[in-house]
Specification:
Elements: H1 45-56
Length: 57
Amino acid sequence: MNRNIKPSCSICAWRGTCNKKFSIKDPSKCIDFSLDVTIDLPEDEDDDKKEKDKSEK
């Protein structure tokens, strides 16, 4: 999973019932943010290369 995902209302698991939805200026500071696991986000290619390098050693 990509660990460098910036928190955003559009990918939050609570976006359907959130009262703060799109009203806070910086969603990265939202204490209720949880990544929605049903959304398929692209993986980082750099992370894949690092894992391959580690396994080859």
